[in-house]
């Protein structure tokens, strides 16, 4: 015994010297391959009623069907019991070929992987006084807009610290069974499953549940819902959180209530919670923008009948007396200006001075939205323990780890580490990815050019028919159906169809490129894919809008020398009032079509699939279906999860901000869509899909800088839309150049004659043989001139058909407007960004307090450990001396 004591003392000294500790996973309980279902359909536990089910794996029994036995071999090689997990298998009640493997994480395994993943857990209740809500005085009214406190109570607030197994006594552990929440347990189980090896061939290792799912070894892998979404669980101690989420969040009757974000985060994880928090905040901020935009629209609607320029267009003595030149060669003919009366009135709804004010307001609004979101996000980061998540917790992707075959020196630790590729290989991968993205962007631009050619060809056909003298049956519709409108609507629909087709094709390409690049972490993977998809979607969705806003009607020449596209098609012109109405039509078609298509794809298809699946696998009424099999009958979550939800909203954000000067109702449509989107997404993930694997997320990731980039670009695009697509600047130039009394009783009359001033004169004898119209209307036979939209000198002038002085005044005014507005708005954005701190003061204080407590606890733990080691050393020294002196 004394010799053993001496050896123990020496080994303790050696262990202290090298600071070496061994963590050993506990062995798993026995795996029962055919445990019978106990008949408890709501049970969340193994048959013993003690061990909780943390994950479920589903595979098809090869003994029941002629399959390749390699799948069985790979499942045996991916032994999860060796990794400390407890397993229990149960055959399906509905289909006896299916086997459900229930996975349980024992306490020791949970503690080990909680330390590996740096999961933050409670150490002490929050002792800082909470800040009172500014709405507390209106609580009698606001309480009706919040989830019921009787059903969803307020969670206790704790200071937290990264878990350490050796310091378990410092953590706030009331009950071991509930110390780790179900979402934490599922997350740790998924982490182990993603790193379970199943095949090794030379230097190539294959592991991970994702690969096994892709190859068909397993049919599904998912955590369990805790109950049915519309029925309370009969299981003792079940939290019924899914039912609470359905009743207080996803049910249509709760559409007016605020979202229970803490419960969403607790049940689905921080990544889902931060998405719904962002979507709710964005929708709330849209309410203000929608109110101002609706006011701007109402103002334009009431002034459309009183605007001087629309009156002149519709006046038979003014607009009816102005003969316009043909807008295409040969087949097009002359037409009267008053034929565009209705489109001119509609244009006044969107093209007025209120639009300018609204565009400036939206530039400020988007800055406030982003700055206040940063503050709100900082609060959520602290409350949900995701501060410093990326630095501390995120682990490499299994696909990355599996291909690590090269060595390099880590630039930070200066130690050797395994990487999947060399620096040269990384450059090749990135170059291939960039080249492929550029190729697809060029493909989109080619499709845009094709649609432009279609517009020119169809405009030629519509003009020939609608302007033809002999088509008397179209006479009642000519006032409403113009060639420009018919062309725009048909081209917008075709453009939308092309957008949807290219989206489907490019999605697979983007995923393949990102997989080939092999990013290290999941955040890097998602950020890389996000950038690729957004660049593509940006060009795909917005290119047609940019064409109408900044290219159409800008380079058309004049009737004697028109400009041709591809040497064949004459460039199309805008209406006499500009292209703004066409841009509005394009935005309406794309936004409306996109919203309808997304709802069909996100809601209708999963519901129909679940309905068909339940019908095809209908069990007899006497059979009780267990919880894990009920969840298997739901739709699986895609690999990209929330990616498409973010992408949909960011594209919408672009429509709301980039082109809002042409469409003040865009925020209204976005608000209505988002109010449905929140509840539809909630209903979808709560009722139609399996439970998502909970994931941590610090923020909205790469979408944040994308939103900031869109906000910066929106200032320039709106200023340029007002300058080049709207008719506002020419009106202002005319008003200040030709009005004698700008203030007073004659202020309105100063705009009279504006339409005539913007139309130049052309002598029809100057038409070339390739442009001269074949037919002329019966009312045009005695005319010798026609009008076209431009500022050019009339025939007979010494500078015939060259730009006049007013053209250069208008150009100078447009450039000055863009420069002044951009500088004012950018300066305002800079000031707002500076004076609004990204992190609230009270959150900073709580973060400092938590770090202080963590340091104190670690310091005390180290002191106690040193003290205990010192006492043990002294005791052993005494025993050694005793051994040497008295025992020899």
TrEMBL record:
GO terms for biological process: calcium activated phosphatidylcholine scrambling; calcium activated phosphatidylserine scrambling. One of its GO terms (cellular component) is plasma membrane. Residues 264-850 form the Anoctamin transmembrane domain. It holds the Pfam family Anoct_dimer. It is found in: Cell membrane; Membrane. Belongs to the anoctamin family. This is Anoctamin. The gene is ano6.
């Amino acid at each position: 015994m004394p010799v053993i004591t001496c050896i123990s003392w020496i080994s303790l000294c050696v262990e202290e010297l090298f600071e070496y500790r061994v963590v050993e996973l506990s062995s798993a309980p026995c795996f029962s391959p055919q445990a019978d279902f106990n008949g408890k359909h709501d049970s969340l536990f193994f048959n013993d009623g003690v061990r909780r089910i943390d994950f479920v794996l589903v595979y098809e029994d090869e003994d029941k069907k002629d399959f390749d036995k390699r799948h069985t071999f790979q499942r045996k090689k991916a032994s999860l019991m060796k990794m400390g997990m407890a397993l229990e298998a149960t055959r399906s009640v509905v289909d006896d070929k299916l086997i459900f493997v229930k996975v349980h994480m024992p306490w020791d395994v949970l503690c080990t992987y909680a330390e590996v993943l740096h999961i933050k857990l409670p150490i002490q209740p929050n002792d800082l006084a909470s800040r009172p809500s500014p709405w507390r005085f209106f609580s009698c009214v606001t309480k009706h807009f919040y989830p019921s406190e009787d059903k969803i109570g307020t969670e206790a607030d704790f200071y937290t610290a990264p878990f350490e197994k050796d310091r378990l006594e410092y953590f706030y552990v009331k009950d071991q069974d509930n110390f780790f929440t179900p979402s934490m347990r599922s997350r740790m189980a998924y982490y182990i499953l993603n790193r379970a090896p199943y095949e090794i061939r030379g230097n190539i290792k294959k592991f991970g549940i994702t690969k096994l799912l892709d190859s068909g070894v397993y049919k599904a892998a998912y955590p369990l819902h805790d109950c049915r979404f519309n029925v309370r669980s009969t299981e003792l101690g079940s939290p019924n959180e899914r039912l609470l989420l359905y009743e207080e969040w996803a049910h249509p009757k709760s559409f007016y209530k605020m979202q229970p974000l803490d419960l969403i985060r607790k049940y689905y994880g921080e990544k889902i919670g931060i998405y719904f928090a962002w979507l709710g905040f964005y929708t709330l901020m849209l309410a203000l923008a929608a109110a101002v935009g609706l006011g701007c629209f109402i103002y334009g609607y009431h002034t459309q009948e009183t605007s001087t320029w629309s009156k002149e267009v519709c006046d038979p003595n003014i607009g009816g007396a102005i003969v316009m030149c043909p807008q295409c060669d040969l087949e097009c003919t002359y037409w009267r200006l008053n034929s565009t009366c209705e489109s001119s009135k509609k244009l006044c709804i969107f093209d007025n001075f209120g639009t300018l004010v609204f565009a400036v307001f939206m530039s400020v609004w988007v800055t406030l939205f982003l700055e206040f979101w940063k503050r709100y996000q900082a609060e959520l980061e602290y409350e949900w323990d995701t501060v410093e998540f990326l630095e501390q917790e995120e682990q490499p992707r299994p696909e990355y780890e599996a291909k690590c075959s090269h060595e390099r020196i880590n630039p930070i630790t200066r130690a050797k580490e395994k990487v999947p590729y060399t620096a040269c290989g990384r450059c090749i991968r990135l170059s291939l990815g960039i080249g492929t993205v550029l190729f697809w962007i060029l493909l989109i631009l080619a499709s845009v050019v094709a649609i432009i050619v279609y517009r020119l060809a169809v405009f030629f056909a519509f003009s020939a028919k609608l302007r033809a003298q002999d088509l008397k049956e179209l006479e009642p519709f000519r006032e409403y159906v113009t060639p420009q409108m018919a062309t725009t609507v048909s081209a917008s629909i075709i453009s939308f169809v092309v957008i949807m087709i290219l989206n489907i094709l490019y999605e697979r390409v983007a995923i393949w490129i990102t997989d080939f690049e092999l990013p290290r972490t999941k955040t890097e993977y998602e950020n890389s894919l996000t950038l690729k998809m957004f660049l593509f979607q940006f060009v795909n969705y917005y290119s047609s809008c940019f064409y109408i806003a900044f290219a159409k009607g800008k380079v058309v020449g004049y009737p004697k020398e028109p400009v041709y596209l591809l040497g064949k098609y004459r460039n199309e012109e805008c209406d006499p009032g500009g292209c703004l109405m066409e841009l509005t039509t394009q935005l309406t078609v794309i936004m409306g079509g996109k919203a309808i298509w997304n709802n069909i794809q996100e809601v209708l298809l999963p519901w129909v699939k679940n309905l068909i699946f339940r019908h095809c696998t209908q069990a007899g009424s006497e059979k009780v279906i267990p919880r894990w099999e009920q969840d298997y009958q739901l739709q699986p979550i895609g690999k990209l999860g929330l990616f498409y939800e973010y992408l949909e909203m960011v594209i919408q954000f672009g429509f709301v901000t980039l082109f809002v000067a042409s469409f003040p109702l865009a925020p209204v449509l976005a608000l209505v869509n988002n109010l449905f989107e929140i509840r539809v997404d909630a209903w979808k993930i709560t009722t139609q899909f399996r439970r998502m694997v909970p994931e941590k997320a610090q923020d909205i990731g790469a979408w944040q800088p994308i939103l900031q980039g869109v906000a910066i670009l929106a200032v320039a695009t709106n200023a340029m839309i007002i300058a080049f697509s709207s008719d506002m600047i020419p009106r202002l130039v005319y008003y200040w150049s030709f009005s004698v009394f700008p203030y007073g009783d004659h202020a309105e009359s100063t705009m009279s004659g504006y339409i005539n001033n913007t139309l130049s004169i052309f002598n029809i004898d100057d038409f070339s043989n390739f442009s001269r119209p074949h037919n002329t209307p019966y009312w045009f036979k005695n005319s010798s001139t026609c009008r076209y939209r431009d500022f050019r000198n009339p025939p007979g002038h010494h500078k015939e058909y060259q730009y006049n002085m007013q053209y250069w005044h208008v150009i100078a005014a447009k450039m000055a407007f863009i420069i002044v507005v951009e500088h004012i708005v950018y300066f305002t954005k800079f000031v707002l960004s500076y004076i609004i701190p990204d992190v609230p003061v009270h959150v900073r204080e709580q973060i400092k307090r938590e770090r202080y407590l963590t340091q104190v606890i670690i310091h005390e733990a180290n002191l106690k450990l040193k003290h205990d080691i010192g006492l043990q050393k002294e005791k052993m020294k005494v025993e050694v001396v005793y051994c040497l002196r008295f025992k020899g």
